[in-house]
Write a structure and sequence with these properties.
209 residues, Rossmann fold, 5 helices
Length: 209
């Protein structure tokens, strides 16, 4: 597939979000799950910087993608969550930035409560590590995203790290944890990227109202 892809902005707040109305697909996951590597593999060029020190990103990084002959859309890489070095500060940063991005607010009793998403949000990709399919932090993030009423695609990254037997066991755990399909992908071998492209194309052509 022919396309163009470029870094646009590192957004520190809602004021920095692109305002052209192009559909956006959020990329959410733990700090060391390989979001940048997957973005680079997906667009077939190095637009996202990978870091040897996970948990340092505190901004939402926007990448503009335009497939040949199709409309442009954005990948929005949110700050990672759950990395030990980040501690409470990393969690607070994620909740604040994700709250602004998804149009949510702090509820008095239940914490973060859903509000209507911005009109150009098409959906979210939740990246989990295929080697650790049942982490509580990922389950919490999944529930958080489900509450936005946006389409959520669960993506099991680093599937190349598993043996065939391990993949079978992980698949059973995914079904139990996420109650729906989970797409295994690898930024190294390219497995699952074509299927992920198909899902993203479907999301961006039919963004949530």
């Amino acid at each position: 597939m022919q396309l163009t892809a470029e870094f646009v902005v590192s957004a520190a707040s809602a004021a920095d979000f692109p305002k052209d109305g192009a559909p956006e697909v959020a990329v959410v996951g733990r700090s060391n799950v390989g979001k940048s590597s997957l973005i680079n593999a997906l667009v077939r060029r190095s637009v996202a910087r990978t870091s040897a020190a996970p948990g340092k990103t505190r901004l939402i990084n926007y990448y503009r993608v335009r497939p040949a002959g199709g409309p442009a859309w954005y990948l929005a890489d949110l700050p990672g969550y759950g990395y030990a070095r980040g501690g409470t500060g990393a969690r607070q940063t994620f909740e604040r930035m994700a709250g602004e991005y998804f149009g949510r607010h702090q509820g008095r009793k239940s914490g973060i409560s859903p509000r209507s998403p911005r009109r150009h949000l098409a959906g979210a990709l939740l990246l989990i590590d295929a080697r650790h399919p049942e982490l509580a932090q990922d389950a919490e993030a999944h529930a958080w995203l489900e509450a936005t009423a946006l389409p959520v695609v669960v993506v099991a990254a680093k599937i190349d790290k598993l043996t065939r037997a391990e993949r079978v066991r992980a698949g059973q755990q995914w079904e139990h944890s996420y109650d729906g399909p989970v797409l295994p992908v690898s930024a190294v071998t390219g497995e699952g990227l074509k299927e992920l492209w198909t899902l993203i194309d479907r999301l961006t052509r039919n963004p949530a109202p």
